[in-house]
Every structure is written in structure tokens, then in C-alpha cells.
Amino acid sequence: MMNILRRTLRPRSGDRLRIAMVGTRGVPAQYGGFETAVEEIGQRLAAQGHHVTVYCRNTAGERPRYYRGMKLIHLPALRFKAAETLSHTALSALHLLTGRRHDVVFMFNAANAPFIPVCRLRRTPVAVHVDGLEWRRTKWGGKGRKYYRQAEELAVRWGDALIADAPGIADYYLCEFGADTTLLTYGAPVLERQPTDKLQEQGLDADNFHLVVARFEPENHVDMIVEGYNRSECALPLVVVGSAPYAEEHSARIRTLADADPRVRLLGGVWDQELLNQLYAHARTYVHGHSVGGTNPSLLRAMGAGTAVVAYDVIFNREVLGGFGGAYFQDAATVAGPLEALDADPQLAAGRGAALQQRARETYTWDEVADGYLQLAEHLVDGASTRNPSARRRPGSAWSAQPVRRNTSHQLPTARPVLAERHYKE
Q: What is the DSSP string of 169-223?
């Protein structure tokens, strides 16, 4: 079961909440969906007069005290893959004990669940945005995956609310724990009339390339996409944006596949947001290989840019694309067909892209998401909680991340219906 929060309740007159956001790299957002969510949600809540504090990891360069109305607290973190997030969240939780009490804490990433009791020592309710299925990521060894599985259980037992960004994630927590979640998706930036100057600097022509944007991690299937493209008869080049700090062997495989086909261009990591916007907006096709997350910001960005999408066939991607013309692949052998069809027919690609952009414009808006966070915060301040100290993972769960052949006509949050509860059944 999941609660779908929508714009039906307004902030109570005169109420100004003190809201803390912990567990991410912080803002300004430069890396990852969580950081983008914190920036987009936090600035909107701050604009409504709420006091928003964002905990940020110390990085080189400027460390502003405020950003777009949000107060920033910069704290250090251990620079190791397994310890960076946890060490920073531990310090953030301790810092929350020393200053003025907050009304609500939004904690991002279920991995941080062991620190929920520290945040609640001052009777502050904690909502956990649980993210995707981190334990399925191959970058984590056996101990890391076991930790993530245990952390999910702790989030259910100790969190006052669980936030899912996709119906598939809500399904997972319902099937695995019998736990209710609140569905709050991400917003999609709608990109229109993008320039082409930075595109031209890369030697690319608008509407004359296919695009992949992803970290080089096995569950993002960049190697599968490049291998499938190599088998295709596509005339347009494949541009690949991404890198991998912890997966050198996998990155080497992608480079080998790319070197075998002169049509493939590896741009590496791109942090210039204007260039990224132009890449998304002017690609003929965006190829999306992510498989273990929920609602993925890269996919939403492509939809908001009005670009046709070919996506890995998994429930999370089908839920986001809905019945709006997305094409799917399951392995390298099934990549070529959808790409070749769009490569040869720019009008087909334009039509599909326009339909996806309209879906993004109507369904995935940051204003709606921010209102949902505010409504959830008000419920928690009023004493609502789904905390279940006796929760345990159910044995023999039937949940699966494989595509579910359910009715795809259901709608994700819009601005109209009241607070609702729904069951999603396999």
C-alpha cells in the first residue's frame, strides 16, 4: 500500500516548519538524483517561508552558508566508497542534537537508517526516502549487500514515514515488509528551445546522434547498449556520457566495445549542465539502461527534453514512460531494432518525444513534489507515523523487478485527487 500525497492541503496559516535534509552530498546539486531532489524541494519550501537546513559534505572550493533560501551545514566525510555516506550522516545526526530542534528530518537513502534513533532523540520525526534497490548494485560486495538489506528493515522499523519515488519501490516495501509508503516522485525539467553552441563545440549536429548518460556500473547496462548498437545498422553516432569511480573492469569493457566501432563516442563525465541540456534536447534518441532505481532523474530529463526513449525493460522504466511510446530492450540482441527504427525515421522520434514531454509536463512537476513533502511534514508534526518496531522482512516474498504485465493506464500523482491509498498487485 502507498499513500499518494497531492496538492490538497495548504500550509496552516502562520506555521513555519523547521525542516532538515540529511544523507546526501548537499547543494548546489552537481551529482545524483537525491541532490537534485534536495535542491528542488528545499528551495520551494524555503520560498514558502519554511526554515530548511541542508547538510552538505565538505568539498574543495566555496562553502556558502545559504543557497536559494536554504541554510547549509558543511561537515566532513571519510573518502571511502563504503564509508563516505555513513560517516557524513553520522556527523549530521550528531549536529542535529546540538542546535535548535527541527520539526521534521527528511533522511535520504535507506542505508542511513541506523542513525534514525539519534535524530529522534529530541522527539523529531524522521521520514526516510528509501531510494532504489541498492543491494542489487554490483559495486557492493556480499557484506555491503547484506548491510543494505538490514538497513531497509531498520528504516521500516524506526522511520516515521517511508518515501518511495516509484510505484515499483512501493510494491517492494509492501511485499517484503508489509510496509506502507508515501509516493513522491521526482520532477522533470522541461527543456524547450535549447541552443546548440556547446553541441557544436563537440562536433555534434542537432537530431543527428543517439545518447546514453549513465555511470559505468553493470546495473546501468552501458556495455549492453554499446554492444547492441555495434550490431546495428544505425547511421547516426552513439554518444556516451559517463564514468565510474569504482568499476574499472566494467569501464574497460565499455571502452573496448567503443573502440571497436568508430560510430561510438565516449565523452566521459560531463558536469557542464548547459552542455548536458543540449545533449538531452537535441539527441534523436536517449537510451536508458538503468535497472535498479525507482524514478530515474536521467530518464525524466530526457522526457522533459522531448526526446524519444529506448529503455531497459524493467518495471521502474515502464511505470515512468507509461503508455506514451517508449521502446524497450532486454539484452544486446534487442537494442538494435528500436534504435534502427528511430535512426531511420526522425518524424517517428519527434512524435514519441513530444508525447513523453507532455507526460513529463503534466505528471512530473517539482511544485507537486514539494507540496507532497510539505503535506507529509505536516502529518508527521501532527503525530502521524508508520513506525513499526517489530517489522521484519517477510520470508518468500513474491516481489520481482521484472516487467509486470499489469494495466498501465494508472496515473502517478497529479494536482487534483485527495490524499489516497492504493494497492498495487502483481
A: HHHHHHHHH---EEE---------S---HHHHHTT--TTS-EEEE--S-GGG-HH
- Residue 309's SS3 state is strand
CA dist 361 and 357 (Å) reads: 6
The rounded distance, in Å, linking the Cα atoms of 399 and 392 is 15
The distance of Cα 421 from the centroid of its chain, to the nearest Å, equals: 23
**Residue 385, amino acid:** S
**C-alpha distances in Å from residue 209, one per residue of 27, 261, 303:** 32, 15, 16
Of residues 308, 301, 264, 280, the one with CA closest to residue 195:
280
**Contact predicate 373/319, CB 8 Å:** no
**pLDDT single digits (tens) 148-187:** 889 999 999 999 999 999 898 898 899 899 999 999 999 9
Longest dimension (CA), the chain: 64
Residue 383 confidence (pLDDT) above 80: yes
Distances (CA, A) of 257 to 157, 262, 286: 45, 10, 19
Mean pLDDT on 284-308:
94
Question: With bands split at pLDDT 50, 70 and 90, how would you rate the model's confidence at 134?
Answer: low
Quote the pTM value. 0.86
